[in-house]
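tool=predict chain=A
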Amino acid sequence: MNFTKKQVIITVAAALVIISAIIFLPAVFKANKEDNAAAQLSEIYNDQFVVTKSTVSTFGDEFEITVQSEDTKIVYDFDVQGESYEGEYYAENVNAKVSDLVQPLVPDALVMSNVHLQGLTEEISLEEADVQKATIRLLNLNELTDEVAQEIAQTLKKQFGEIPVQIDVFVVDQERVFDGVKFEVENYFQLSKIKSESFIDFKFHEQNFSF
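tool=predict ok
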């Protein structure tokens, strides 16, 4: 069977349209879902978010999304089910305030705090936070001294009372690797969720302190 030049052109054009639809339409649908989620979260929390990653698919309304505040640069995780969004926005803001409290004691480290609050429905200050324990994780180029670890614990106990404090230090002794990991973590991960298992692509050694 012989095809005319016109038939060949039409067939090739149709094939390109189909291929484009298969490749690009799902990406467009996913991007629309991400943009819609970011817009709704921005309205809910009166913040401006950009999407950094998600598990959104072409079909289905249940997925996980990670957004970053354009203002504070804090990263938040949310579970999306249709028009429902579940996440710990206000608790993560408390964690960020705790990190700000600790940061002057370790100026060159990335501080990742978790004071294990859940279910907050409004913004609160550190003085209002009912903290029962604190976990501080540090990404650092150098080992933490016992003196600085004790100073961190004392600072938190002064703020929250005699709570247990756990300090985990991930020591990366290569500056280039440290800078790269720090950038990735700051921009793509909710810091309170970081654990040693989160770092699978580079080597580090760990220190642990309990007070």
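The beta strands are 49-54, 62-69, 75-81, 84-87, 110-114, 134-140, 165-171, 205-210. The chain has a mean pLDDT of 87.
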